[in-house]
Amino acid sequence: MQTFNPVKEGKVREIYDIGENLIMVATDRISAFDVILKNKVTKKGAVLTQMSKFWFDLTKDIVNNHMVSVDTNDMPEFFRTEEFKGNSMLCKKLNMVPVECIVRGYITGSGWNSYKENGTVCGIKLPEGLKECDKLPEPIYTPSTKAEIGDHDENIDFDRSVEVLEKAFPGKGLEYATKIKDYTIALYKKCADYALTRGIIIADTKFEFGIDENGEVVLADEMLTPDSSRFWPVEGYEPGHGQPSFDKQFVRDYLKANPECDYNLPQDVIDKTIAKYLEAYKLLTGSELNV
Ligand SMILES: Nc1ncnc2c1ncn2[C@@H]1O[C@H](COP(=O)(O)OP(=O)(O)O)[C@@H](O)[C@H]1O
Ligand SMILES: [Mg+2]
């Protein structure tokens, strides 16, 4: 049997290169405040992968995506084990666009900091008098470029994204920059409207796109998971201060209250967090996680 090693191990995900396709595995690792915790959150990886699958299916009329299958029977034999079941996605390998496509429907995080300073986010002027976590009149597209290791991602405006893409794909900069912007807004609107009916606010999120062998723009990476987005419960939403995170609030609260714990959490905090992931999955998709 052919064995495989990850070509990339991120904080939370592992990527395997199997030739024409990739296998993206979401592990049960969890990060908080940019640090990987010592504990594993059982089934978190499966929740994230199945959530991406749900969104890819829901939005395939807007843009093609890289998902081929989440069934390990469609993967090389090496992956047909419990370890990869439910948490692995077979994806078409793409030439990735070097821009992170961030869309914000609410003002929070780095967007809030920038707005407080000068009333704008990524060069976009926003109305005066917004409170922290207020809903924006319209979702805004605030791209960034992937930082070299060690650096922070750099926020850019649309014109700069055209330049970055022109450099990566000569002759195609404006076309690709426009397409990824329009897709980003359309995807966010459809999914955020849907999530709201299920009790979850998607405050902001990040999409990544790639280019396929025909030069077409294809949606890639993970999609609308709590790791790539801010999910807030609708219940209790109140602008004027930070909102609780749907999935990581127990973890963050514990870490803040117990700075000496060295990123080792008690089982009851982990159990409550597992329950939150399963709840988010059920709320959004309408079914229990079944993997
Ligand atoms: N279909 C795809 N083809 C090629 N690369 C992809 C595809 N989908 C996602 N990627 C890339 O796979 C990598 C996933 O790594 P990740 O664990 O998110 O770490 P990071 O985002 O820090 O690079 C990213 O570099 C992403 O751009
Ligand atoms: Mg990533």
From TrEMBL:
Gene name linked to the record: purC
GO cellular component: cytoplasm
EC code: 6.3.2.6
Domain SAICAR synthetase/ADE2 N-terminal: 7-258
CDD domains: SAICAR_synt_Sc (cd01414)
Gene Ontology BP annotations: 'de novo' IMP biosynthetic process
Reactions this protein catalyses: 5-amino-1-(5-phospho-D-ribosyl)imidazole-4-carboxylate + L-aspartate + ATP = (2S)-2-[5-amino-1-(5-phospho-beta-D-ribosyl)imidazole-4-carboxamido]succinate + ADP + phosphate + 2 H(+)
Protein name: Phosphoribosylaminoimidazole-succinocarboxamide synthase
PANTHER family, A to Z: PHOSPHORIBOSYLAMINOIMIDAZOLE-SUCCINOCARBOXAMIDE SYNTHASE
Source species, domain of life: Bacteria
Pathway: Purine metabolism; IMP biosynthesis via de novo pathway; 5-amino-1-(5-phospho-D-ribosyl)imidazole-4-carboxamide from 5-amino-1-(5-phospho-D-ribosyl)imidazole-4-carboxylate: step 1/2
UniProt xrefs under NCBIfam families: PRK13961.1, purC
PROSITE patterns: SAICAR_SYNTHETASE_1, SAICAR_SYNTHETASE_2
Pfam families reported for this sequence: SAICAR_synt
InterPro entries referenced in this protein's UniProt entry, alphabetically: SAICAR_synt/ADE2_N, SAICAR_synth, SAICAR_synthetase_CS
Family, similarity comment: Belongs to the SAICAR synthetase family.
GO terms assigned for molecular function: ATP binding; phosphoribosylaminoimidazolesuccinocarboxamide synthase activity
